[in-house]
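Re: [ENG-882] Designed sequences occasionally contain unexpected residues at chain ends

Forwarding the minimal case from QA. Structure tokens:
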């Protein structure tokens, strides 16, 4: 198994207690095969799952103040589902660091998505125990950014701006237009408010921690409004 030094570099975090990192990588199959009192990573996985949920929930809550509970829940589910966590684990090459039983190893355990996702959660739990919540939160968000998850736009299962344009083009060739209405707050914590218009008609207004986020929120609200009304949004001349 490769040295854990490489993994700590990839994580951007050095453990004060290296045994926690080793424990987070220890699959339950080791205990089942070898017996005895050896621990495994399921308790850290349980803890890490809660840390990830809170960290992402808090980030979404702060970034998208206009989103309701349902949209926030949907966005969080997209960001931290088992597939996305396994993808993070693969990017970190966790598979080569896993401590598995011989049987689990020979049956492809190092590449198994569920095993990789569990190990990623366990590592986040281990960082929480070793360095506290804020350290774990910052590391998680940095890893997600490095993996291409920016959270600048509403992380909805759909593409609100694209879906709105497609919906409007069914009755008009004109594309929607987005207008920045105002910004507020200090430079390090700005809130943006945007409107989306079509054919000179304002469809909705959205807010966010960036202009892109506010535009996406406006598009999402416009879509919800148009679909519930089920009428053309712009009168034909």
């Amino acid at each position: 198994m490769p040295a854990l030094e490489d993994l700590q570099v990839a994580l951007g975090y050095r453990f004060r207690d290296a045994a926690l990192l080793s424990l987070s990588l220890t699959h339950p199959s080791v205990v089942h095969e070898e017996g005895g009192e050896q621990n495994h990573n399921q308790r850290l996985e349980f803890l890490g799952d809660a840390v990830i949920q809170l960290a992402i929930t808090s980030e979404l809550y702060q970034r998208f103040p206009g989103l309701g509970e349902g949209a926030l829940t949907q966005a969080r589910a997209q960001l931290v589902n088992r597939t996305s966590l396994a993808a993070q684990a693969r990017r970190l090459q966790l598979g080569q660091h896993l401590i598995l039983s011989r049987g689990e190893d020979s049956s492809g355990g190092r590449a198994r998505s569920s095993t990789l996702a569990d190990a990623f959660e366990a590592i986040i739990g281990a960082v929480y125990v070793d360095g506290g919540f804020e350290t774990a939160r910052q590391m998680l968000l940095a890893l997600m950014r490095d993996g291409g998850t920016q959270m600048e736009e509403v992380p909805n299962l759909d593409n609100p701006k694209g879906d709105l344009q497609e919906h409007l083009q069914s009755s008009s060739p004109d594309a929607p237009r987005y207008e920045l209405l105002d910004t507020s707050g200090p430079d390090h914590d700005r809130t943006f408010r945007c409107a989306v218009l079509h054919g000179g008609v304002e469809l909705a207004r959205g807010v966010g921690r960036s202009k892109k986020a506010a535009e996406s929120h406006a598009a999402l609200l416009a879509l919800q409004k148009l679909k519930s009304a089920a009428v053309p949004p712009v009168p034909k001349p």
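QA comment: On inspection the terminal residues look reasonable. The chain has two domains: 4-146, 160-229. Proposing we downgrade this to a documentation issue.
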